[in-house]
Amino acid sequence: MSAGRSFAEYVKIKFYNILCDAAEQYVAENWQQLDLYSKRVRHIENAEFIDATIQRVYVSDLPGMRVAFDVVLELEIEVSEANRHNDYSDECFPWIRVSCEGDLSQALCDWNIVNIEPYSKKNATENSLSDALVPYIPNDKLEDAATAFLKDN
Fold it and tell me: Over the stretch 83-99, which tens digit does the pLDDT of each residue have?
């Protein structure tokens, strides 16, 4: 990882194309699970992946120099239906979570995708590292963390 860059920026630069390919394949095979909604298309019969935007990256520490990271992608999907009178289409923007793992000592060259699923706040990652790969400690837990640190040293 280059100095001065955030982990999220590193993921965007290094893995964006592969993440988009994985998202496109996921949409092709699982678009019915994405809970797509459109006011213009009443009965969605087809969904086509257009593009993706990385919205968030959550990082969790694993043993050694390994990390698990969840990349939350906002997808742009064209949905359509065809009936005997008209063809209707619209765009939907669902979010998915792409769970990955890799080794920082290898510059994440060994990274792999572990799972892809629809994203919701219910399955948001807790206790993740900050964008600079430093443990994030909520304000209400700072005193507990400081006490634990002092006890260990």
Answer: 766 778 899 999 999 99
